[in-house]
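To whoever picks this up:

The parser on our side crashed when reading a file containing two proteins. I've narrowed it down to the boundary between the first structure block and the second sequence. Both blocks are reproduced below exactly, byte for byte. First block:
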Amino acid sequence: MKTLAVVPTRPSRALDLGDVVEALASVNTEPALLPRRQRLFGRHLLPSREALEAIVNNLRAALFPAHFGATSLSDDGIRNYVGHRLDAAMFELQEQIRRGFLFACAHGDGDPATCEGRAADATREFATRLPEVRILLGSDARAAYDGDPAATSADEAVFCYPGISALVHHRIAHELYQLGVPLIPRMIGELAHSATGIDIHPGARIGGSFFIDHGTGVVIGETSMIGERVRLYQGVTLGAKSFPTDEQGRAIKGRPRHPIVEDDVTIYAGATILGRITIGRGSSIGGNVWLTRSVPAGSRISQAPIRDETFDAGSGI
């Protein structure tokens, strides 16, 4: 017996969305309903997620032209190519930074009249830091190759590993964060978070040769400090145990509340490390460990051993 597919039919009458459109538009146009920042400062363009994604792609191509740009360039060709992609990135980045400063000004942080100059200065300084960013990312790619027996080359890590992709975003975002650029670093971090499942706050300070294996579910909080040659596996959290609040019960911003991880530490899958504690140099933190206290250098922290008991013909019950 032949089964007939059920084809959904359109409503006999088109939906009348005029009232809905008017109501939504009025929220953004009627003076009485405008957010306070718009009433005070006008309707400044907000930063664009799509523009920032294009900026990161251009910066990634400038940092790794043989991987994400043209693959057969002469030395002079590489210089021309890097210059082209970098120029495109910096031109648009300055505009997005300007919008970020205007956003902050609209929330009471500064004078909108100075935003143009601040944006130009921040963009110029950011550009000077890119060679150091490239050196760090190169060390991260080598750490991925050295630390993963499945990796065939550092190039494979650059092309394929979500941890490297997240670090490209983070190291760009961190420099902008250090320069005091509002909003833009968080947006760049969230681009990586959405794509990889790795959530690194741009304020986190991360040393060279950093390796995130697999990566999904990794969370690194704003005031985390990570040393050299540190390795994390999937599901690791470097989080806050608690945070102080003011008289109104609101969280007090900016205080150190995330872990310090010293050099040559390995943290295995699912470990949760909370609070302003220190994981000493060369330590190993086992999978699924919950840790809220500092541990000295060379520590080996693991869960309680599994009990393996065999019962024979009811004995032991």
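<<boundary where parser fails>>
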Amino acid sequence: MKIVYISDSTLPSRSASSIQVMKMCEAISHRGHTLTLFVPNLCDPDMSHEDVFAFYGVSALFRIERHWLPTTLGWAVGSVIYALLSASAARRARPDLVYGRFLPSCYLTAVCGIPTLFEAHVPPSTQRPGWLVNLIFRFWTHAKGNKGVVAISSALAARLEAEFGSMKLIVAPDAADVVYCLKGKHARKEPDQTLQVGYIGQLYKGKGMELIEQIVRKCPSMHFHIVGGSESDIRYWKRALADHQNVIFHGHVRHEDTEEFRQKCDVLIAPYQSEVRVFGGGKNVAPWMSPLKIFEYMASGRAIVCSDLPVLREILTDGQTALLCDPMKPEDWEKALKHLEANEKLRIGLGESARQVQATSYTWDVRVKKIYDHVEDALKTGL
């Protein structure tokens, strides 16, 4: 199958969306499809020298084609121009399918009759400008080439149906690569060794650094490793925790190298708050998110302590694949970490259970198979 994937992600960049796009393109290509990825002609200035495929640790199995998105004209005008250019290029390419995360482009290709699948990560009303994106999505549901919507969580699928009525929906949570070789196996800790606790991700509001600050203070017997964050955020939190020697900020690490840090930890934490903003700002995505971090944590085979949010219970089971804690109660996190510190068997059991679930249900290949089984049936039946 000849496929065009349309995204508005900046490549390369530190955003999770760019990682997800590249991993999906690789997994689609693994199925034998010929794929071209359309992205804006934008690049993080600090990463302009990077080879895109090497930066994400992705095989160069597909082509990347860049189209003009003029940021000097404002995001709205720039997005319209990019949508027109990318949709026009997709039409000229004559693909069997367009798959995308950028709704305006997907709407235009579907209107042209090109079989199109749109992947939704948030309700349209939470994007800017909400009323316009809502309107485009409503039109999209009736477009000739519409082959369905991929929703990253059951909560998001329910929200879409509540707002727009019944539609062709595929619920497909995000995923991670399988970690075939666990370096250090289960990281057995000697009684006199310090528990190593890791966090990998952004440090802006909603991701949980405010909670981590309190946990660091409550658990002086443990070492905390923080990977990621902008330079300004790192400077802020280093000052805030200057009086504590049990936390290390490692800064930004290439995505392909983050597994090395996970393997060095005994426990990984995901202290999401009840309000979470995406990279670069925006509205709250906590009710329907499907964080890449969770699946990468699961793949690492390490014990996980995570915020107890309804959407995360779609993936994690308390006491089986993770310990789930109230994000508003630092004392619950302290209790969970100290319990894991004292109980090696529980740490190993949680990590192994999570790893098995991820390897069976939440790999990129499994995700793509689920989506494309639906697409191939739809294309055969003409639905």
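After patching the parser it read the second block fine. The two ends are 17 Å apart (CA to CA). The chain has two domains: 2-175+363-381, 196-361.
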